[in-house]
């Protein structure tokens, strides 16, 4: 996957978790949780969904890398490149 | 068999934890010693009548579309839809003391106005209390424990108003005698006053059915009539789990909803002197009356009434079998159902003393149930309609009944007053969820299972 595809995947996961939220204007460089109503339990589900779908393990200490769409793509790209 | 996670108890918290774990691919097994799911919130049938145990109403009700509240949070976590529980909102509930009545429904502003109208001199203080409540982070698992009585009495100067606020919050979710931990007070205040009551038309059965179906659809395994008799530990961990039927299971992690001391008692080498101080004391007796008509036909439209017959409010283990001076009168018919329930019903809940009930012989036990029913009815009709002539069937359960079906020491429905908020125990792979972890009520119980499953299993790689 490319970085763009990874971002799309994350957006799709977020849409699944909070289907009523409008995600079309989500900025890549601003923390996701500042832009949509996503609590810490919902945030955990993004990580769980990545594990469920792609077998990617994100250790607790690395959760901070998934704060924005851009940082998520940068962090995940080496692990998702081959997918 | 070897599992990623073994859950003890198929109540609200165990099932909710199970759904989370099974949904995210963990190999999970729930073992339940009863032949029925639900634990402290369950149901039974008797002579063609259907009865609920526990749930009078689901607290924390918010209409569909509200996002940042416990109920929608839990629906999202369990991948359920708002419609699944079929919740119908209440009509009107009341807190009745001898000279004052405060009504409340699911509109918080209505309750605020009731307080202002009835206690005009406390209006500013009440606003201050609301501010304190709204600013408090009740979900912080590491918060310092403070006394709610101290906080509230430092703000509200009229003890009557203070008692009237405490009454429903204590009856619906407090394990401590006379006082309450402030975090728990905030949780209960929001769940009852800021949010509200609702009930599925089919009662607790509907909620449990949805949870069991979801759990099984996610691939979870549920073993019924399957009590754990021993947790074998070595090197600071549980190594294996022995079941009553002789089967031995192993699991990486164990979540127990059986209660803290109840779980510790399953450990080999259990030393009672280490744990006994943590046992809960508060239990209840419930009188369930089937009526030959809808209570509304008698002009009784109240959903839930919290009553107290003096200005003092004692929330403690009574010195007698039952304390009828205060209690809860619940009318399951008085929710906004599309179709009426098949029969009229009133449920009366009073504080009760486990030891005294437990000591009675069989005949005396039966006789005392009838005596207590008469005593409570005499009190209750002062606060609700007199439905004594319309009763066609009654059933009564006592702390002894609760103990028998749930295994809770003293029949303590709200468990120990010393909650284990982080869920951790002295063993590396054993965690507590449910009543003794600390989120109470139906929604609280489910959130407890969810947050313990998240914290101790899913967040660990």
Task: Please provide a written account of the structure.
- The complex is a heterodimer of chains A (83) and B (461).
- The mean pLDDT of chain A is 94.
- Chain A has 83 residues and is mainly alpha-helical.
- Chain A is globular.
- Helix content of chain A is 55%, strand content 0%.
- Chain B is an alpha/beta fold and 461 residues long.
- Chain B is globular and about 60 Å long.
- At the A-B interface, helix 3 of A face helix 2 and helix 14 of B.
Query: What is the helix fraction of residues of chain A, given as a range?
Result: 55-70%
Shape of chain B: globular
Unreliable spans of chain A are none
Termini Cα gap of chain B: 22 Å
The helicity of chain B comes to 25-40%
Give the overall average pLDDT of chain B: 95
So what's the overall shape of chain A?
Answer: globular
* Number of distinct beta strands of chain B: 18
Report the C-alpha radius of gyration of chain B, rounded: 21 Å
- State the major sheet of chain B: 7 strands, mixed
- Chain-averaged pLDDT of chain A: 94
Instruction: Report Rg of chain A.
Output: 12 Å
Question: Low-confidence segments of chain B, ≥5 residues, pLDDT <50?
Answer: none
